[in-house]
Amino acid sequence: MEWKSDERELKAAGAEPLPDGRCGLFIRGWEIESRKRSILTSLQLQQWEEELQTSHLPEMVFGDNSLVLKHVNTGTKIHFNAFDALVGWKHEALPPVEVPAAAKWKFRRVAVRPAMLYGAECWPVKNSHIQKLKMAEMRMLRWMCGLTRLDKVRNEIIWEKVGVVSVEEKMREVRLRWFGHVMRRGSDAPVCRCERLALDGFKRGRGRPKKYWREVIRRDMELFQLTEDMTLDRKVVLDYDYTFTTPYSGSETVESNAELFELFLLLLYNKFVRGLSNESSSSLQWENCMDKIDLVALASKEPILFYDEIILYEDELADNGISLLTVKVRVMPSGWFLLLRFWLRVDGVLMRLRDTRLHCLFGEHMKSVILRESCWREATFQALSSKGYPSDCAAYSDPSIISERLPIIMQKAQKLSIEIPSREMMRSKGHLPLVGQAGTLASKGMSYWHILDGVGQSK
């Protein structure tokens, strides 16, 4: 539901809605805009998979959803989107979390499928073999779900319900794993000599020639666009973290579309007053601090000028829990506050909560101070049960209610000051002559970046 602001409250706070029908407002030098669209299409998901170099993405990716907070005069931009969050998931590459299963599921995993696929990595398998294995596994899956053929439930519905990898894909996986093992062995290893073994002097019979293991491997490699050289690379990290846990705390940029002179003063201030290089002066400089966000003050009855909640991605973990990344924003006359939350619940196993809170207080002369708190919490169902908490998954549907039960594993606070240095500020720091020196260099046709390198050097 779209938030409707009170015009009188907006006017009293000096805020105004964004033009062109955009969702958001402009207040005290900040342009705050939220955008909500539908989930990515299959083609868009495929493009994301190629860019992220993965074959796994959440069930629902809202790739066009975003929240942007931009300080117009300095070009400071803090924004939140699904793509950057998934980049963080890829880089963190956590180990997979094992999902619990019923006794039937475990029986299938530890007894039925291993027996069905024993030695399958060396089979020169035919399509007829694959079909027979699929039929056998489908009978097992129907038994797991308590169904028979008389129930007239389509196979596709059963596959979607259980959310398991098909036996054909599993055979291909173990076959390629064994092929990599063979290729990495020394040329004198018995398995390599057997693989190169060729039988000559035999007369080929009539009909279609027999399918050999190498031919099956060749088709598998063509399907995934693999080469034999890739088998020698053991540094490839497989993205098996299907929980999509991300360390993402937001994206940051400094755009150069601010007023040119104001931007130049800011760069001079960063270089000569704060001692930052040109590269670091063009990025946000967060400082570690001991300050805390005053949540009690935020709970006061201050008019809410704008509010929105944006979902970035969501996955139900094949009906075994929830993985959800959202960002909420609230704008008041005194400042803005947002909560970026990753919530994971793997039923019967694990709960993980990663919160990032940002609070910006509006100061005088368009000066703003942003506090950022990151807090990671995590606990297993077993650990909570040992403390007397319920073990029923239904009791943990709302992360806001049970967050205090989860122990903290990481917590930090940072501060960012945003201000536009004036001539008076530069004079108070003793650097006003630098502005005049910069004007002399500018009259010679030098760019601002070259001026920054030249200012302050002896003539």
For the structure shown, list the relevant keywords.
17 helices; eight-stranded antiparallel β-sheet; TIP41-like protein; TIP41-like; 2 domains; 459 residues; six-stranded antiparallel β-sheet; Phosphatase_reg/MetRdx
What spatial order of strands do you see in the largest sheet? 4-9-10-11-12-13-14-8
Q: Could you describe the largest sheet, including whether it forms a barrel?
A: 8 strands, antiparallel
Tell me the overall shape.
Answer: elongated
How many H/I helices? 17
Helix content: 25-40%
Using DSSP, what is the number of strands?
14
Rg is 30 Å
Residue share in β-strands: 15-25%
The average pLDDT value, as a whole number, equals 78
Question: What structural class do the secondary elements suggest?
Answer: alpha+beta
**Count of the domains:** 2
Runs with pLDDT <50, length 5+? Answer: 235-239, 276-282, 429-435, 444-452
* Alpha carbon gap, first and last residue: 62 Å
GO cellular component, one term: cytosol
Protein name: TIP41-like protein
Family: Belongs to the TIP41 family.
Pfam families: TIP41
Q: Could you describe the 3D structure shown?
A:
The protein is of the alpha+beta class. It has 2 domains: 7-97 and 248-268 and 281-419, no CATH class; 100-199 and 208-231, no CATH class. 35% of the residues lie in helices and 23% in strands. The strands form 2 sheets. Strands 4-9-10-11-12-13-14-8 form an 8-stranded antiparallel β-sheet. It is elongated and about 95 Å long. It starts with 6 loop residues before the first helix and ends in a 5-residue tail after the last helix. Mean pLDDT is 78; it is low at 235-239, 276-282, 429-435 and 444-452. Belongs to the TIP41 family. This is TIP41-like protein. One of its GO terms (cellular component) is cytosol.
